[in-house]
Amino acid sequence: MTTRWRAPDWAIWLVAVGGPAVMTAGLVRLSAPQRRDYVFLYLGLVAVLAVMRGLWPALLCAGVSFLLVDYYFVPPIYTLTIADEQDIVNLLAFFATATIIGLLASLRRRALLGSEALTRQLREANTELVKLNKEQSEATSAALRLARSDQQIRALKESDRLRRELLANVSHELRTPLGTILTESTDMANTRTRAEMERTLQTIAAEARRLKLLVDDMLDMTVIESGALQLDLEPLDLGDAIAAATDRLHRASPDRQVDWDAAAARVEVLADWDRVGQIFDNLVSNADRFAPPGAPITVRVSKEEPGLVTVRVVDTGPGVPHELRDRIFERFFRAETDGKPGTTGLGLAIVKGLVEAHAGTVAVEDSGPPGAVFRFTLPEAPAA
Fold first, then answer.
1. What does the DSSP assignment read for 247-275?
2. What tens digit of pLDDT does each residue of 140-151 get?
3. Pairwise CA distance, residues 71 & 159, whole Å
4. pLDDT tens, residue by residue, 202-224
5. What structural domains does the chain harbor?
6. Is residue 286 classed exposed, middle or buried when 0-12, 13-18 and 19+ CB atoms within 10 A define those classes?
7. Omega prior to 177 cis, within 30 of 0
8. How distant is the alpha carbon of residue 217 from its chain centre?
9. Alpha-carbon distance 162 to 343, whole Å?
């Protein structure tokens, strides 16, 4: 930033007095008629002084010019007396004009100085803002880095917690059937009757099936969570999928009734047949575990949203408390079953993963009467 040169005060006052004198010394060399033609030069000097330093030097210059013009150019010359009234008017007009010019130039100078001061303040404020923005940017960057580090630490802690939780659950789930199989297979040598042998083999087979179910569920969960799930999407009749799931349920629970409207279910969805069957198997099996003996399971199909088919699986069991409706779809989460055989705790988590892989949603709804209502959606197949 460059600094404008400023003349010292004594030089300004010297010009205010000496400037008119120098100008007069030049003009007296001209003939008398020509001298008055150059009187406007005094006004210019007055204006210059007013711009450079303000009103008071300009007024001094105007007064000195007035006296010099009167003394050298107004008859009788070389005196301060004025013989002609017109000359009096001319001199007064000259002084008034010089004063007005000095005042206007002074106001302009004041405005210029104010503008420069404002510009300087704005420049300083801008410098402060730049500095402040830089400091805030550095502080924000530091806070962002700290937040990211904190987020990463929390993610690592959560990952470690889930890993330990997963290992604990898996080890427990694997240890129980494996322990039963090892115990029963070891005791087979001590069995003496055919009935005992058949009972032992049945126990081993049941635990082996339980172990296979756990491994299959864990593999499915791993595929879903890794994003490696591949779907063979094709138009399929939802009623056929419900009928097939009902048949599979009857193999384990032949007395359980499943009510569903074949006409309402006669709708095509764009889905993977095997995965849709897995969704229905997990939901109806879950309903079968919680529904009272002899109570039917209801499957309802409807179209409530454009392009989607809504399915509800309803039972008359104890229902799902509000505080558990979000957690019920977590891995290894299991509700109380009143002594009924346990599950892997992965069924509903797999349902959620498979439904979302089909671009659908799954949730637990309020049922009103006792019971649970699991609602999920699937994309409707486009019309042929």
1. HHHHHH-TT--EEE-TTTT--EEEE-HHH
2. 888 888 888 888
3. 103
4. 887 877 877 777 777 778 777 88
5. 9-129 (no CATH), 234-379 (3.30.565.10)
6. buried
7. no
8. 37
9. 19
